[in-house]
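Sanity check

After download, print the first record. It should look like this:
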Amino acid sequence: MAVGTSGYQRGWRRMLVDMEIPAWDEGFLAEYDPVAMADRYERANASSVMFVCKTLNGWCFWPTEVGAMHPRLNGRDVVGETAALLRERGIAACAYYSVIFDNWPAARYPDWRVVPPTPPTPPSQPTSPGDRHGLCCPNNPDYRAYIADQIADLYGRYEFGASFCDMTFWPGVCLCPACRTRYRDETGADIPETVDWTSPAWCEFQAARERWISDFTGLVTGAMRRARPDIAVYHNFAPAPGHWTWAVPFGATEHSDFLGGDLYGDDVEQLLVMKLMANLSRSRPAEFMTFATVDCFEHITLKSADRMRAQVLDAAAESTAFMFIEAIDPAGTAADDTYDRIGDTFEAMAEVEPYLGGEPVEDVAVYFSNESKMDFAENGRPLAEIAAPPTYPHLAALRGACRSLRRAHVPFGVITRRQLAELDRYRVLVLPNVSRMDAEEVAAVRRYVRRGGRVYASGYTSLVESRGVRHDDLMLADVFGVHLESEEPTGPAYAKPSDDAVRRWLHPQRFLTFTTGSGLAGGLVRLRTDPGARVLATLTLPHGHPHVGGFGDQNWASIHSFPPVRDTADPVLVEHDFGAGRAVYSVFDLEREDADANDRVFAALIDALLDGERSVRCTTHPGVWASAFRQPGAIRVALRNGPPAIVTPARLRLRAPDGARFVALQRLPSGEPVPFELDADGTLSCELNQVPELAMLLARHEASAEPPTA
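Expected structure tokens:
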């Protein structure tokens, strides 16, 4: 099957019903009715449905020969019935199958279990107290054989067009005999006991963990395709942007025909992940999944109708398929009203989905580093003290960059090393505190800027190699025009503009505040600049730096805060020409802080690197986000206004593709013509008196007989 031809993937409105019900009570799933559920899918207006074949409990919903069928189904083949019912209704189907979080085999085969650095108490427990998951190690050869045999049994019985595999990630560092043996066989070394991102030994172990999970992902995909060669397979992408403990490398996506994952954060997270998946997925559309309830731990409390609608419209604006997840009641029943709410919500996507798709217009690329899902503050900590935090420095800076660019309506995408060979597609590259880089990445960035590219970089970008070598200077020092002199501890510190443009962007603030944290040796980087480098801002320190002071001393200047007191000549924001290109480097990740001044300064720096020229320029309220997609003979623009209570006009300017001229502009889905003007250079401009919650415009173009007059 050609990648992306699955009927399931062609559906934009998707649903999954969570079936994580145990079997200890005779009433569990006693009232489950596949016919009633198929009717609910219709009520939900779903064009594609994922249904559970095997749960995290380890129970199977078909009469399996490997593992165990859920005993409360009393032998009823729910998988076979559901597949037939969906086929009758013309709803594309996808099989849900889970691994690693697998209670049934974890309970019966203790040797298969993940062994965390701090074993559970008592040792007979498969996990720590309060955790309901039984965890099986993907390195255990018997568990791997079990999974392969179970997949062969399931996918050999039924015709599925698509399959989703959940939980393909490490729940944490595993120290079971299988992991220890495999690592020793591959490297001749024992697993390190302490985290240290400047140690090659530790970095080699983390690379092995990522390699192992990618290998297991390939084992699952391969088993599914052997049983059903035409199937489209994808694995849950949600852990991939997460902390290093989950160890899901972006490279593991080679085992997915397209990408999708369940996430529960804010609108910035949704935007970031949708843009990341759009450039990382082997085919489009990618899929954004989330619960209809406020999170995955809540069974009853639904999101508001406005929040549900907002998430669906956000997905439509980015040409991303959307899935609502709903959880079944223990008895096997469900609330019909919830499916009616979902159906009403999906109407908004149904209206515009015939026009979705295309190649995203991206002037700016924000780089997501697979190797930077970590924090140098973890150095020296034993494995037993490590738990996955909700964020890390690189992700926090990357989120901030996406937030700022969205508010400034700058056309951008999120890329990975998969795009290293095609950086010239982008006019500006953003490296948001890329904590670890390898030689290939460094060479690609240097080559890009030398040929005329523009780059913004912040924090520790290019100081430490992915293999665990810390350099005395930034590896991209020649590009940035700065050199590392020293580091020191710091609390709050300040950037004071030394450039008139930066002063204007920052006004009415006088300084930008930053706190770098512990970093490597303290966090405050002192620099010297190359001749020709232009210092845009310098360092200002509070009274008593680096001490915060207290009741017993006078090492402070205000009882509540840390006012800037001492100006220095040390550069913290520097611009530098390199080859035919230009770079801006910031000692601190100014894009990270969710503050109006930081957003304005960062976006203005990017606009300056663009020389003020954008493929799409939208002048409107910062709460509106703009995106554009190239389609055959047209560019489709989406303006997403959230919340829609904002009554705001918008002015849109759209640059024509080379050798083309715009000939028509219309609203979607109505087809209503929209008045527009063409500048001498062929740029289209139009005015919208008001932006609704989702405005879509289609600008049609054709080959130009003559080039526009400059």
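If your output differs, re-run the checksum step. Summary of this record's structure: The chain has three domains: 7-357, 364-609, 616-703.
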